[in-house]
Amino acid sequence: MTQRFAAVLFDCDGVLVDSEPLTMGVLRDLLEERGWKLTLQECMQIFVGKATRDEAARIERETGQPFTTEWLHGFWAARDVALCAQLQPVAGAPELVRLAHAHTQGQIACVSGADRNKIKLQLALTGLTDWFRADCIFSGHEFARSKPYPDIYLAAMQQLQVPGGECLVIEDSVTGVRAGAAAGARVVGYACPHNPVVTAEALLQAGAFAVVSELSQISDWLH
């Protein structure tokens, strides 16, 4: 690829930080306490790439209990304990962020479906905070429609003043790839070999122009 990208937009969970197994493990346990028994893989298949609130109706249906703000905040608190104890960056993520920052002269953003507190915590825990301007961190919780809708990516592009066709988006979920593609970006899918719920084929079908199994492979497009 000869195109030079003017901006690089990173998903957070599963791209920058290896948080999905930790977060989903906590969620699975809390749902089981309410009577909905899932394996970790089943939990990831349902919830990865989405805001938990987006599945509120299903949670209520499967548990027979209301989806309340109190329960959600309890989940977030337990999740944060697990993240603080065990979170690590995805292999190659810090190096790729530095390269993208240099390639675009600082025109990078973190575009996540998670709540802002989680995003900020995870960037801090993995030493990535300083690479992202505060006004270039976007949370799907602050939009009426989160991924797979393009709204959050369109907002990031507007903030950076870069048209979609000049943006490289890095996503690891079908939901995220659809959002980036719908916003007009060039989306590369990251299919981690250890991720049990996403395949390269699914990411390509969702709109990725290419799929990598290691983040270091993306560096070829940022020189």
Describe what this molecule looks like in 3D.
This protein has helices at residues 20-33, 40-47, 56-63, 69-86, 93-103, 116-125, 151-160, 174-182, 200-206, and strands at residues 7-10, 108-112, 137-139, 167-171, 186-190, 210-212. The protein has 223 residues and is of the alpha/beta class. It has 2 domains: 7-18 and 88-221, Rossmann fold; 20-86, Putative phosphatase, domain 2 (DNA polymerase, domain 1, Orthogonal Bundle), CATH 1.10.150.240. Strands 3-2-1-4-5-6 form a 6-stranded parallel β-sheet, with helices on both faces. Helix 9 (200-206) links the parallel strand 5 and strand 6 (210-212). Helix 1 (20-33) packs across helix 4, helix 4 (69-86) packs parallel to helix 6 (116-125) and helix 8 runs parallel beside helix 9. The longest helix is centred in the middle third of the chain and has 18 residues, at 69-86.
CATH topology of the largest domain: Rossmann fold
Count of β-strands: 6
Computed over alpha carbons, the radius of gyration is: 17 Å
Helix content: 40-55%
Distance between the termini: 10 Å
Shape category: globular
CATH homology-level superfamily of the largest domain: HAD superfamily/HAD-like
Strand order of the largest sheet: 3-2-1-4-5-6
The CATH class of the largest domain is identified as Alpha Beta
Order of helices and strands: EHHHHHEHEHEHEHE
Mean pLDDT: 94
| Biggest pleated sheet | 6 strands, parallel
- Structural class of the secondary elements? alpha/beta
Q: Which regions contain 5 or more consecutive residues with pLDDT less than 50?
A: none
Quickly give the CATH architecture of the largest domain: 3-Layer(aba) Sandwich
